[in-house]
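I'd like us to work through together how a protein chain folds, taking it slowly. To get us started, please write out a protein record for me. Label the sequence line and the structure token line clearly, so we can match residues to local backbone shapes. Once you have written the record down, we can walk along the chain together.
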Amino acid sequence: MKRTILASCLFTSLFFFNACREHANPSFSVEGVPAEYLKLQDSYVEISTVAQGLKVPWGMDYYKNKLLFTEIGGHVKELNLESGEIRNLLTLPDVYTRTTPGLMDISIQKESSDDPYVFLSYTKKQDSTIVTSLMRYQYNGNELINAKEIMQIAGATGHNGCRLEIDKNNILWWATGDVADNKMAQDSTTLNGKVLRMNLDGSIPADNPIPNSLVYAWGFRNIQGMAFDDSGNLFTAEHGDAIEDEVNWVRPLKNYGWPLIEGMIDTDEEKAIHAKTTMTEPIKPWTPVIAPAGMAYYNNPAIPEWKNSLLLVTLKSQTFRVLHLGEDQHQIKNEQVYFSKHYGRMRAVLTMPNGDIYLSTSNQDWNPQPGFPKENDDRILRLRVTKEKPTSYLQEDVVATAKSDKINPALLYMNFCASCHKPNGKGLKNTFPPLLNSNRVKDIPSFTELLLHGTTAKKEINGVLYEQNMASYAFLKDEEMAAIINYVSKEFGNKQTTTAEEVAKLRK
């Protein structure tokens, strides 16, 4: 049975010294939005809003003094990092967006002196079929020109991924989702649930690990973050199902397990599968899940404390995380957590040559969390070291240090259910059905079966069609399952209860 981790570990800061320096570009922030500050051990990082009133900025990249970003509804915009001016560069009229699909990532060629290539990935419909399109443009410093579709792969209403990266050798990497098809990720002849490697014209590099194939590695569910370190090691951040979000160190011809294995290889069934077909474990799993999103590598002396780290933003836990890599680059030895629920859902993170860090929020999207969106959402935030001591500041989050043996039903619900069905049990129309006054909740055996087995059935409730899949929660212990069922029944349904023994009978 999968391990249930109900508390995170507290990690303290490493060494730190003040390494402030002047930046080439002047400081600016959106007028009327005061800066906040992050407190490190011996210094401060200014957090300022540089753009606001956006609609789900999904991907970000830079070229010279410009930051280009996508909005999920189909806009590509340019932020001038000197003046703060924002211009719309491109509007894609055929973007299909519903919950998670839409215009997603952007990557800009750095190894080019003029008119670099810019790649976009987005979902669209062709007749009744959803596809994901990889587009290439050129950026002349003023507009995106010479549009060319490089390829299409299967798309869906969910699990489209995706992230794009162009490496120092002008090779394009594309992390794709399994489009909620559990057969794709393990089939190395398909392009979904993969990390793909290609030339900038979409052709197959001669040194790809599988001849005449774009596939570099496979067995992925829904990659939401991707980054290279300075040595060329590739890392991805991926959504698990109900458990085991992951960071993976990606290597050629490796199989990362989905859907046969979730996260660590730690159940008898998974060990048996691994004995027959070698699978690769993540270097960092999370249960309860945090919904990792964008990821970037940081190795700048501006913040020595964060050197050689992966920077990760998350959706469900609404955090910014610093994942410190070990000396061999193949393990995460320490994790620091910041901003829990302070700025809401966070989608993308970008590191700059001068040490600045940009983050984007995702509070105008399909799954807003309690208290969001705020008046200035969505926005792009900039983190920058400052010499001046502010009057107030944020600090590293302090989280629980130990797991209690006592089951906390409310905590179980918040960890595994609330981000979808909401703390009040009302769900999200067309996506997650309400638990409040649900007939399914009132039928305790039926509700238990649903939690044990999950479902892919699309069901109409009170005239509303709910399309999102329901994950299996069979990894929970019988007593934990009973605690969740009883909590939901008491809070949202009726006074009926169940026991761990009754759950065990239905499990068998």
In short: Helices lie at 268-276, 409-416, 418-421, 439-442, 444-453, 478-493, 500-507. The longest strand covers residues 129-139. DSSP finds seven helices and 28 strands in the chain.
